[in-house]
Specification:
Blueprint (H helix, E strand, L loop, with lengths): L1 H21 L4 E2 L2 E2 L2 E2 L3 E2 H59 L3 H8 L1
Antiparallel strand pairs: 1-4, 2-3
Length: about 110
């Protein structure tokens, strides 16, 4: 399996290298609002935008991960609280049944 993964990585890197070599002479400026970037090669502008996209995706993923971990912790606390409550209710019903049962002499007097 690792051979397939490394083969795909090598093919992607070769494709990126080929794209870069073919577009070395293309120069572009990037305009973002009032900001104008210095002239740069097209492939560098594309890589820069790709890296920025990965960084934004990473930040969103970290935020979602932290939110999910918070939800899991809250669910575990709620689960623990409900389990404790269930244990208390189980113990309570056992104690009531023991105290409600009449003793043997009381049963015989009631039947006679």
């Amino acid at each position: 399996m690792w051979i397939i993964r490394w083969s795909i990585i090598v093919l992607v890197l070769l494709a990126i290298l080929g794209f870069s070599l073919q577009n070395q002479s293309q120069k572009v400026n990037i305009y973002i609002g009032p900001y104008e970037s210095p002239e740069m090669p097209l492939y560098f502008a594309l890589y820069l935008s790709f890296a920025l996209g990965i960084f934004v995706f990473f930040l969103i993923s970290v935020y979602n991960l932290l939110q999910l971990r918070t939800d899991i912790a809250r669910q575990r606390r709620e689960n623990r609280r409900l389990r404790d409550e269930l244990d208390r209710l189980r113990n309570l019903s056992v104690e009531e049944e023991v105290s409600e049962e009449p003793s043997e002499p009381e049963k015989q007097e009631g039947n006679a």
